[in-house]
Design brief:
There is one protein chain. By secondary structure, this protein is mainly α. It is about 75% helix and about 0% strand. The chain contains 16 helices and two strands. The protein is globular and about 75 Å long. It starts with a helix and ends with a helix.
């Protein structure tokens, strides 16, 4: 290297405003599609907005009364705790099964992998209403296949057992349904991450005496941690806001409040009770929880970016 080259200062790369201009259309579309409903919902959360307001009566500004009413509403707290437990358990089970399926796809041959991928794509592509209807048939207390098969086990009496009539078994069925529909996304995302792991690294670890569990825990998991973080975050958000599956299962079972999650609870407050002010307040609470969950991931991204 010449003295001239060594002494020359590296000029920082010149940045222009072109990238910012290019993202303007996407930002505008996002603000129009999501901004207005969010602003309307935020304003409505501080108003007394009911059936009369839909026919032209001006809404009354009530400040934080809607949120204060929620603090003393035992049903709201029961639904909130139930929804948090449901989304955490369901998301955890989904990610665990999804990772196992991804590892399986990475280990089997081409033909078996193709069969697994097609099967999961079909499960993923099935409409929510169709998938929920199938599960309602499977767990039907009169003609359900699940009761029929379990009843064949000696000492097990599942004749006409109502899976959708008890809160615990109701949410068990809902969890199985949501996990079944969500596992393909996790599996494909994690499998894509697994394909980026160098085979030389895995072979070197195996030569050094690391068994399969040690290779998975010490090599695979750290390398696919960013993928695991994002799929877990998305599953938590999606499972917290689940609505269609719970609504359809409630229509086939019980419509009691013990079977509500946040999505159906907001719908019941707004569409059924015409109390859009309180429904909007609950929606804001869900938004705050979602932002809090997302901030954990964003903070990790910031730390990783600063460390580089």
């Amino acid at each position: 290297m010449s003295t001239h080259t060594a002494g020359r200062r590296i000029q920082p790369r010149r940045t222009t405003g072109v990238p910012y201009v290019l993202i303007v259309p996407a930002v505008v579309a996002l603000l129009l599609g999501l901004g207005y409903p969010l602003v309307w919902q935020f304003i409505t959360a501080f108003q007394d907005y009911g059936l009369a307001q839909q026919f032209g009566k001006p809404p009354e500004w009530v400040g934080f009364d809607n949120f204060a009413n929620l603090l003393w509403d035992g049903e709201f707290w029961a639904v909130l705790v139930r929804s948090l437990v449901f989304c955490i358990v369901t998301a955890a089970v989904t990610v665990v099964i999804g990772v196992l399926m991804a590892v399986l796809m990475n280990a089997v041959g081409r033909t078996v992998r193709l069969i697994l991928q097609i099967s999961m794509l079909l499960a993923w592509a099935m409409p929510v209403a169709a998938a929920t209807t199938v599960f309602i048939w499977l767990f039907d207390r009169r003609r359900g296949v699940v009761n029929y098969l379990l009843d064949m086990i000696p000492g097990v009496d599942m004749n006409r057992f109502d899976w959708l009539g008890h809160p615990l078994t109701f949410f068990l069925v809902a969890m199985i349904l949501i996990v079944w529909m969500s596992v393909p996304f996790v599996s494909f995302a994690v499998y894509a991450g697994l394909t980026q792991i160098s085979e030389e690294v895995m072979e070197a670890a195996q030569i050094d005496g690391a068994n399969a569990w040690q290779r998975f825990r010490r090599i695979i998991v750290p390398m696919i941690r960013p993928v695991l973080s994002i799929v877990l975050l998305l599953q938590l958000i999606w499972d917290l806001r689940v609505f269609a599956q719970i609504t359809l299962l409630k229509d086939a079972g019980s419509k009691a409040s013990d079977f509500d999650l946040l999505g159906t609870y907001i719908y019941k407050l707004g569409a059924a009770a015409n109390d859009f002010g309180v429904a909007s307040a609950v929606s804001i609470v869900v938004l705050v929880i979602t932002i809090a969950i997302s901030w954990v991931y964003v903070r990790e991204l910031i730390k990783e970016d600063e460390a580089q």
